[in-house]
Amino acid sequence: MRATVGDKLVQHGRVVGQHDKVAEIVEVMGAEGTPPYRVRFQDGHEAVCSPGPDTEIRHKDVSRPIGK
């Protein structure tokens, strides 16, 4: 798993009815984009996490022009 600042970390719900948790990666603490990551959730809460198998990284789209 590799990420860069600005990517989204998505923790999938583990039980039926539990929503996914989405956070923005604000700091990559491992070497060459590897965990752990400092993340900021939508409510402003920050945490350090080492993602598990129920997590995916959604990379920011760098090819898309700003404002489009």
UniProtKB/TrEMBL annotation:
Listed Basic and acidic residues bias regions: 55-68
SUPFAM superfamilies linked: Cell growth inhibitor/plasmid maintenance toxic component
Domain DUF1918: 1-57
Name of this protein: DUF1918 domain-containing protein
One Pfam family here: DUF1918
InterPro entries, A to Z: DUF1918
Region of interest called Disordered, as start-end residue ranges on this chain: 46-68
